[in-house]
Amino acid sequence: MPQELFLEFKNNTLLPFLFGEHNTHLSHLEKTLNVSIADRGNTLRIAGEDSALRQVESVLNTLYKKLEKKDMTDISIADIDAQLRFTGSEGNGQTAEDERRSALAIRTKKKTIAPRTHNQAAYIEMIRNKDMVFGLGPAGTGKTYLAVAAGVDMFLQGRVERLVFCRPAVEAGENLGFLPGDMKEKIDPYLRPVYDALHDMLPFDFLIKRMEAGDIEIAPLAFMRGRTLSNAFVILDEAQNASSMQIKMFLTRMGESSRMVITGDPRQSDLPGHVKSGLNEATDILADIDEIGFIRFDRKDVVRHALVAKVLKAYENE
Known about the structure:
11 strands; 3-stranded antiparallel beta sheet; globular; 17% strand; 6-stranded parallel beta sheet; alpha/beta
């Protein structure tokens, strides 16, 4: 039998952020949990099954407290979904897992980034505790974005002296000569996701200054050959598009006081049919080394638009 729950929030100025524009967040909770929510000023009347009411209560109270503490300055539908993932089916409030998630939040110069799934939380924790981590799984699971955030965090804390980001430019076979422009203009399209993540986290002037000083470097994988990367946080993105030789070359660039994160989707290689992906081989060869961490994401970890997870599921069923 449906029950009722009343929630009251004292600070009216935070409610537009909590409820969403035109109450879109409340509507999303109604649809997701099959409840009815009516707002009267700073009070909500919620009707539905008991377990759903407890989930709504937990989600809204937790996010409201984060707004109060300024741990969050805005809330999106993705934040609502993330909180639902960390709230048990009975709405068990501020769980140990949610406290862990808060502790793992990454604060950059422009925004605070918190894990939105259990695997994302484990990923950040592993990056903090191991020198080499593989983040494996489909698009939209935060593999690259969270790795960049973790690297920026360590750089701002002075725990590493440099940030180095690279990708295989596989679509052009790493032979970029036929593209127009100078070398930077040729490689930028392949490295755009890294630029976008950095712009999300660092002020433009700061980022440009650090790039000009060589403290932040973004380059194709081929440019890593012959180097030793010390006191650096190094990310190889889209590693499924690197050959076995390239992956081995990259992994052996690791120097003193460095961290490495290797990200990719083992099922989505763009390499020619006769070239074996080095990512799959590396995960097999290195699986028994305790100092190396592996996190495997799946479509439940997709934090882009909800349709992305459905698209991935549809393709998996083909």
